[in-house]
Design brief:
about 350 residues, alpha+beta, 8-stranded antiparallel beta sheet, 5-stranded antiparallel beta sheet, 6 helices, about 20% helix, about 30% strand
Length: about 350
């Protein structure tokens, strides 16, 4: 049985790679419709077979992202980087390239999926970008102004292809933690209470676990800065997955992590490849999850690094300017978001 499963996986990977190799015949690097159709056909072959691999969590882009094979899809030559400026939006995506479940152009691929686990609805966006500059952050107004906006408004104003809420930095403005957005420093103080997510010049994730004293975090950040440029830093958490290892969730951490609630998390699967996840909660259809359950999911889909963002009614996944997360309340205004943009010259 195992050998048959391995054979099927191998055949799928070979077929996908052959189909994707056709993309480089196109001068622009765009994926040819014929190749995309064959790609979809190949990965669904023999699904009814008795010996077929378990496809319960399988989706083409998500699976390839988690194995790193999605790197063959996007060309990176001659793609212009977006400005680092915090107020600069992404470029305008091609409207005709949006579908109900994804977006694709020469510089970004997004696939939207949905799962039912723990009596709750998970909304997932798998994202692959061509340059680090396409992972971006935005804040409402100036730092410390207290201004907030709806996530869908953020999405429209920043030309986001897909977007997730951030750490709501104004709500955690207690004097501790590191808050950096697009290279601009808002707060620069160590904490002994909260894990950090640092994003470097390559848009790679680095998670720092808090210690018993502030010096633990301070020393770790100093060590990071000797090797990397800090582009974004988030003060929320906790850490869910670090270097591929599932983290144990503290008994006490920013409220009660062991209650079921709406949740949000971001993870990195491979270079320039990410998963954005929100879980609906506090509704009749979806009760929500604990942070431990959220961590288990991020680990299961293949995240090398994963970090919890602000949850509750702040959790929001937005695609094509539409809120995917379901709430029993009006969409909450938030102070900041993380979004992914195209780098095409449109």
């Amino acid at each position: 049985m195992k050998s048959n499963k391995l054979r099927n996986i191998t055949l799928i990977v070979i077929a996908v790679l052959m189909a994707l190799s056709l993309t480089f015949l196109a001068p622009s690097g765009a994926i040819l419709p014929e190749a995309a159709a064959r790609y979809q056909d190949e990965v669904t072959t023999d699904m009814d077979s008795e010996d077929a691999w378990d496809y319960s969590l399988f989706n083409p882009i998500g699976y390839l992202a988690s194995t790193g094979l999605i790197d063959v899809i996007l060309p990176t030559n001659d793609v212009a980087y977006l400005p680092l400026d915090l107020t600069e939006p992404g470029r305008v995506p091609i409207e005709e390239n949006f579908t109900e479940t994804g977006y694709q152009d020469d510089t970004i691929i997004v696939e939207i999926t949905e799962e039912r686990l723990y009596d709750s609805t998970f909304h997932i966006a798998y994202v692959k970008i061509a340059t680090p500059s396409q992972m971006r952050t935005a804040i409402a107004g100036k730092f410390g102004s207290g201004r907030t906006l709806k996530s869908t408004v953020f999405s429209q104003s920043m030309n986001a292809v897909v977007l997730i809420n951030g750490d709501y930095y104004t709500r955690t403005d207690s004097g501790n933690g590191y808050i950096v957005r697009q290279g601009e420093i808002h707060r620069w103080k160590p904490s002994s209470m909260t894990d950090l997510l640092l994003v470097d010049e390559n848009s790679d994730f680095h998670i720092i676990i808090h210690g018993d004293t502030k010096s633990v975090e301070e020393d770790a950040v100093d060590a990071f800065l000797t090797e990397h440029e800090l582009i974004n830093a988030f003060y929320f958490g906790p850490a869910l997955v670090v270097d591929g290892e599932l983290m144990e969730i503290p008994e006490e951490y920013l409220g009660d992590p062991h209650d079921v609630n709406p949740r949000a998390a971001i993870g990195q699967l491979a270079p320039l490849t990410y998963a954005l996840v929100t879980v609906d909660g506090r509704t009749d259809e979806s009760k929500g999850v604990t942070v431990e359950e959220l961590a288990a999911y991020m680990h299961e889909i293949g995240c090398e690094q994963a970090y919890a963002l602000d949850g509750g009614n702040s959790s929001a996944l937005v695609f094509h300017h539409q809120l995917l997360s379901i709430k029993d309340v009006h969409e909450r205004d938030v102070s900041d978001v993380i979004y992914f943009a195209t780098a095409i010259d449109n």
